[in-house]
Design brief:
This protein is 33% helix and 14% strand. The protein has helices at 9-26, 41-52, 80-87, 109-122, 159-165, 184-188, 203-206, and strands spanning 31-34, 62-65, 67-69, 99-100, 128-131, 153-156, 178-181, 192-195. A five-stranded parallel sheet has the order 4-2-1-5-8, with helices on both faces. The chain has a three-stranded antiparallel sheet with strand order 3-7-6, with helices on one face. It binds 2-phosphoglycolic acid.
Length: 207
Amino acid sequence: MKIYAAKDYSDLSRKAANLISAQIIMKPDAVLGLATGSTPVGAYKQLIAWYEEGDLDFSRIRSVNLDEYKGLSGEHDQSYRYFMNHNLFNHVNIRKEDTNVPNGLAEDAEAECVRYNGVIAAMGGIDLQLLGIGGNGHIGFNEPSSVFEKGTHVVTLTEETRQSNARFFASIDEVPTHALTMGVGNIMSARKILLLASGEAKAKAVY
Ligand code: PGA
């Protein structure tokens, strides 16, 4: 494991974008595992800027996202599909059909999790998985625990996580109660992992 210290958020974002772009340049058809949340936004902005300058090509890149709220459609402005479209996919030349986010509206969420594991396997696994981390240490929607699910699964969100995400919704009642998330096994099978943490609120989790 390598730890890169960054002097501030913009330095962190640039360093992260550098590592992601190295992956894209070394393997133009790489599978990127992507994350939502406020932390990776700066890195996505930097990648978009480098794409616009002609330094990056996403045309053969494929992606799988970590998680999605259960019950939200991709058009809902708090869904993670919406986040990815607006913070990255709409601004680069990735083919939308090569981007994957769990379907929050799947009638059978368990079957959707099985399908999602199959999507990751069919792509040959993840080359570089980008991660944020929750203040309590959660990764994706995998909350701290002594036992972890390996594969993609449905989780009941903790009150702490719902409260912390309530700022993005009109009220706490609108925050979904469940989500579909990759498991720790999916994440740990990635060939490389890049975990970003910024700010004092993450210090304890990183420690
Ligand atoms: P953040 O969320 O990037 O918005 O801090 C990270 C997380 O909760 O996984």
